[in-house]
Request: fold
Amino acid sequence: MRPAVRRRCRRSLSPEADAELTRHLEVLRAALGTHAGEAVDREVRRVETLTAQPLAARRWREVGATVFAMAVVVFVVLSARRMALETYGVTSASMLPTLEPGDVVLGRRLAHATGTNAQPVFHRGDLVVFPSKAIHAVRPEKVPDLLVKRVIGLPGDRIQVIRDDAVINGWTVPSCDVGGYAYVVPGGDGSFVRGRMKVEFLEGRTYLSLRPPMAAASDPYVVKPGEVYLLGDNRASSYDSRAWGSGIPGVSVEALAQVFALGTHRDGSPDVGRVLRAIDPAGLHMEGMDLRPLNEGLARCLKARPKDDPPAPSEATASL
Reply:
């Protein structure tokens, strides 16, 4: 629900009803991130019931668009399994600026994850979802059960991160500086993430990354057979292959993330404006900030796409 619509509801609802609406919106977002299709359907009906009367006399066209978008979300979630799709919640800032905490993405489940014997096929630049138990290293206590990261290296690739640039087989992934980026972490404790936003170009994929003010290098790593080497788009703070010192088994990847199922507003409410929007730089999202300078920088970078050759083929560039 958009903040403006939310405010209209609050002016028309009693404090008790407003508290109930807030609770149902939070349950709805949680249900979307945990694949609970029946719970999503139930909470949408409750939200519609609570908001129907106060919104009936106010901007019915906007309300109709919001309800329609929510209906699209419900349809997508309930029909996802038929199309080998699934919803996954983002719980950390490790994929900023591409994904924000609270976002829900829609991923295409891989054939091997659905019970077949098919081998997964990956490409550098893919956005993947996998269980943290696939990491063969001592994990911090608060690591989520599911993680979202980006494939940088395939079997046979020699990977090193130098000044937060990914170097594949001696070839530095091209990037272009978009501008300064800052993200205030929800929760009211005043913490924030900042750095330089860059566009990276990797084998036909274009995506955003966040570079910290101070950069460090990682040791070189040769990706083993059957592995993929993963990095978070937020190079300043991401628990990824740099921390593990290795890749993860490709067969442990559950899905390829492709589009947003639902975004999240700064106040934590669902953002239906990003329903089914592609996860790409064109969807740059920084609520409450003037995006004009960054959009200008982004347009400049996309127009100046480099013509560098891709990294040298690894021993197994696709099939794992």
About this structure: Helices lie at 3-12, 15-33, 37-56, 60-79, 241-244, 292-303. The CA atoms of residues 27 and 206 lie 34 Å apart. The chain is about 25% helix and 25% strand.
